[in-house]
Amino acid sequence: MPERKRKHWRELCTAVSNERDSKKLSLLVQELIVALDERERNSSASAIPQNDDQKAAVPSS
Fold it and tell me: Could you tell me the mean pLDDT of each successive run of 10 residues in the chain, 61 residues long?
């Protein structure tokens, strides 16, 4: 798939709610799912707690 600017998930929601063509709707829904997955990955990446192995690698004071 060629690289193109990704739409914001809210724009995609609006487009999905207004689309009447079933083929276009399906493509928009797929794009929305990808956008939401990326958003979730980006927001949860910094919130992932360290497991015990990672904590053990950090020297204690």
Answer: 67 96 97 93 72 57 54
Inter-residue contact 19 to 25 (CB < 8 Å): yes
Task: Report in angstroms the alpha-carbon separations of 46 from 9, 42, 49.
Answer: 20, 8, 8
Closest CA to 44 of 36, 52, 56, 53: 36
Q: Which residue has the tokens 């360290």?
A: 50
Tokens of 15: 């487009």
User: Quick one: pLDDT at residue 20?
Assistant: 97
The pLDDT of residue 18 is 97
| Start-to-end Cα distance in the chain | 50
